[in-house]
Amino acid sequence: MTATDHPEATVRPPRQSPLGRAWALLRNGWRGLTSMRTALVLLFLLALAAIPGALLPQRSLNEQKVAEYIADRPVLGKWMDRFELFDVFSSFWFTAVYALLFISLVGCILPRTVDHYRALRTPPVRVPRNLARLPHHHRVVVEGTAEEVTDRARVGLRGWRTEVRSGEHGGEITLSAEKGYTRELGNLVFHLALVGLLVAIAVGKLFGYEGNVIVIANGGPGFCTTSPAVFDSFRAGNINDGTGMNPMCVKVNTFRADYLDNGQAEMFSSDISYQEGADLATNTWRDTTIKVNHPLRVGGDRVYLQGHGYAPTFTVTFPNGETRTETVQWAPSDMTTFLSSGVLRIDPPGGMYATDAERRQNQIAIEGLFAPTASFHGTLLTSVFPGMTDPAVAVDIYRGDTGLDTGRPQSIFALDQEMVRQGRLAKEARVNLRPGESTTLPNGTQVRFDGAEEFANIQVSHDPAQQWVLVSAVVMMAGLLVSLLITRRRVWLRVTPEGTVDQRRVVVEMGGLARTDQAGWGGEFDRLRHRLLDTSDS
């Protein structure tokens, strides 16, 4: 008889259909995704994926720095931009890890919650047949009946889940006790709070918004949250287009910066006035003070003091005697001494020139450096302290077409160098000026440096789920502490009559098992034994 004639050789497992194979693949993939090991790996990947967002400039925070970073690295920067390294927290790969972590946590928490609920409704397990095989075991003969010893032990195990079973083998009584169910509850609470934290963060990103605006202090115009256009930069959530903002107006009255002797900033604070709600109709202004990490909270919004800088003031007197005064913020190029750079563009008064072409040929541009505490090395200007104690500017003054009418976007901190290269904007002076000093251009136009005002960078932030983020974080910590501090313990007692005539002596076998860890369980078991049996070693 050949192998093929053998009855067992002809039995083959049924071939699985393509649909069955696909279902098995999905089932195994789901089991792998919803395992706690996968959730931990995804949590680590999420933390790893957030590192570029902390190290690299992000468009949502400072688009200008992103553009400068790419310009300095034309090849590498473009590839980094393709992989959305400058938009990390809205990138497809960060969102994918975030979503997978959420699904993994939900998928592994729900079955564990069901199992924990069933464990709470299940009596403690029966006493093992051979207690001597447990890590901790004790056998002793004590006075009293089996019922008395068992009742005494049950009272001593208050707070434990107990189950007494009697009449199993010739009058013996067994006691099963277990504690530490709260440990698993704390673990579940921790993971559920983590899911809540992820949901709250996602809701905040979807429905929130964040706008930044520079406001000149000491009588500056302020701003009102009428539309995203009033902000210098605005980031709205994916489901928020910025049209439903809470109406509010803010003015910066004063700005104060406290520095140590070495120039290190100690505290920034600003006195502001604001209107919100009914105040807008009655034109009522309310005064308050905001500091770093101490925002104004009003109408579900938070008004933060993000930073500050200086806004030089220049007055231009044209040949016909008319004047224009402008105060424009300049960007700090050195955050230690607040040496700042920027540009100021001034258009001639209306009607001064007959044609627009002639007017454009006489626009004034002032570009250069501002030092709050000036120090000159020859004609070179630098700053030695961030506080404004001895201000000065080193500027180039241009006359011509500043490009304001070209429709091309321009930086508020730098001139369009294409206009300079084309000769449409000509440099007419390079001077160093202190407050009150001026210079006169060849056509009779006078440029005077009047000093500087401080500006505050104000951020208006709205996050409808911020409170839930805090609640979830607190619950997470509470659940983690419970899961770390609570220990799982099991104790069993088998009480058997010794066989004497008066039935007043019983043999007690006691065993203990640590469900999760054994650190300190030996000493705890001995103390528990003495308390329950009220006897010393024998």
SSE topology:
Blueprint: H1 18-33, H2 36-49, H3 51-55, H4 63-72, H5 74-82, H6 92-121, E1 136-143, H7 146-156, E2 161-166, E3 173-179, H8 181-207, E4 209-216, E5 223-224, E6 233-236, E7 248-259, E8 265-276, H9 278-282, E9 286-291, E10 296-298, E11 301-317, E12 323-327, E13 331-332, E14 340-346, H10 356-360, E15 363-371, E16 374-377, E17 380-383, E18 392-400, H11 417-421, E19 425-433, E20 438-440, E21 446-462, H12 466-485, E22 489-497, E23 505-514, H13 521-533
Antiparallel strand pairs: 1-23, 2-3, 3-22, 4-6, 4-21, 5-7, 7-8, 8-9, 10-11, 11-12, 11-21, 13-14, 14-15, 15-18, 16-17, 18-19, 20-21, 22-23
Helix pairs in contact: 2-6, 4-5, 6-8, 8-12
Tell me the structural class. Answer: alpha+beta
Rough outline: elongated
What is the CA–CA distance across the termini? 72 Å
Strand content: 25-35%
Strand segment tally: 23
Number of helices: 13
Radius of gyration from the alpha-carbon trace, in angstroms: 38 Å
What proportion of the residues is helical, as a percent range? Answer: 25-40%
Sheet bearing the most strands, described? 7 strands, antiparallel
Unreliable parts: none
Global mean pLDDT: 85
